[in-house]
Write a structure and sequence with these properties.
Strand 4 and strand 5 form a beta hairpin. Helix 8 (161-206) packs parallel to helix 14, helix 9 runs parallel beside helix 11 (248-259) and helix 9 crosses helix 14 (297-310). Strands 1-3-2 form a three-stranded antiparallel sheet. The protein has a two-stranded antiparallel ribbon with strand order 4-5. The chain has 16 helices and five strands. The protein has two domains: 25-131, no CATH class; 163-369, no CATH class. It is mainly α and 389 residues long.
């Protein structure tokens, strides 16, 4: 029995003698950047907690002078900028220590022991010394894509597998970004419309006929002008404004509004095909933040609402009796509050979808970088292999 044990340890020692030198060939340490949690690591630490309370719990909104949607956008935009700066600092430390920074995986590889970095991996010094010396073209690192199948002279059908997958992933990424920006556009339209609805409610509460007249006419114009371009919340607003369900003078005014809505309603929509085209045009050297910022849906929505409001002229001529009926229908019966609640519920669903899309977009962007890196490795290896022949 003792002999068997001794033999076992002898064999184990021999095996380890073979394994340990092999392991030393690729001694490295890999650190991967982890995105902080916006609620636990950012809110109340890097930003005033009141913004987060408003954004995620609809509290303290008056203190920061924003509604829930506005605070949510503010917090996420600020978090992205802060997170981006942290990633850049992480990458800087990696490169400063002589490591390899993988943008796609957000990881840093640092060689340990006597190993040295060769490309994106660590090798033993003797392996580097014994390797046949083949040099890459002098402009390869800066312009390697011209040696690859990313070159425009290469047809899509003749491109490498890596480039084909890159293009497929880019198409998928462009579609996701376009959907996300369409949602951001609709959310901003809804937010602006809610501001008009609150102004109308304020006028009803104060019971000032002129203010009611102006507020409801602006609300109607905004709602009917954007109903064909936006989705979701407008249905709630339109229930308040149907000519058949309200007083005669108001009903006539609503018909007048509908009759004068601009015929080119497509100008009030966000062009997702343009977004997809812009994403593809900037894809090669763009960061994820740059790719997500094309189109600026909030700016488009803001301009749309500005144009719509600027077109408002006149207003319904309401009597005191008709104003009283509107107060009963829209204020006392909580119709305005119901419309606001429905709008918030719809936008909560939009926000959930937007968060899903952001994760998918980040995943596709990382996949894009991986296919680019694989094409780089394929081209680099091909040039070096041809050199050795």
């Amino acid at each position: 029995m003792q002999t068997r044990k001794q033999n076992f340890f002898v064999i184990l020692g021999i095996a380890l003698g073979f394994l340990l030198p092999l392991a030393a060939l690729a001694a490295s340490k890999v650190d991967t950047y982890k995105v902080p949690d916006v609620k636990n690591d950012y809110c109340g630490v890097e930003i005033n907690f009141q913004y987060c309370k408003c954004a995620f719990h609809d509290q303290y909104c008056d203190a920061v002078n924003l509604d829930k949607d506005g605070a949510h956008s503010y917090v996420l935009d600020a978090f992205r900028k802060w997170n981006r700066e942290r990633i850049q600092a992480f990458a800087g430390e990696c490169l400063g220590s002589g490591g390899y920074w993988d943008k796609g995986k957000r990881s840093c590889t640092v060689c340990t022991g006597d190993d040295v970095l060769q490309g994106n991996h660590c090798v033993a010094p003797e392996k580097v010394e014994n390797e046949k010396r083949c040099e890459l073209p002098g402009d390869f690192e800066k312009s390697w894509e011209k040696y690859s199948d990313f070159d425009s002279a290469v047809s899509a059908s003749g491109a490498s597998y890596e480039v084909g997958r890159y293009n497929q992933t880019l198409d998928e990424l462009s579609t996701l970004i376009a959907e996300a920006q369409a949602i951001e556009y609709d959310m901003e339209i809804d937010r602006e419309t809610r501001l008009e609805l609150r102004e109308y409610k304020r006028a009803l509460v104060q019971n000032i006929r002129n203010n009611i007249t102006k507020a409801i006419f602006r609300l109607a114009w905004v709602t009917y002008s954007t109903a064909k371009g936006a989705a979701g919340g407008v249905d709630s607003y339109k229930k308040l404004l149907e000519p058949e369900s309200v007083v005669e003078g108001f009903g006539a005014a609503m018909k007048l509004v509908q009759a004068h809505i601009p015929a080119g309603e497509k100008q009030l929509q966000f062009d997702t095909s343009t977004v997809a085209g812009q994403v593809k045009s900037v894809a090669w050297n763009a960061t994820l933040e740059a790719m997500e910022s094309v189109g600026d849906p909030k700016a488009v929505a803001t301009q749309v609402m500005k144009d719509v409001k600027g077109a408002v002229v006149g207003g319904p001529d309401l009597t005191d009796e008709e104003v009283a009926i509107l107060r009963e229908q829209h204020l006392n019966n909580k119709a305005v509050d119901v419309a606001l609640a429905e709008s918030y519920a719809i936008n909560a669903e939009r926000r959930r979808r937007l968060l899903e899309l952001e994760k998918q977009i980040a995943g596709k962007y990382n996949e894009l970088q991986e296919w680019k890196a694989k094409e780089y490795s394929r081209v680099r290896s091909g040039i070096l292999e041809d050199c050795k022949k």
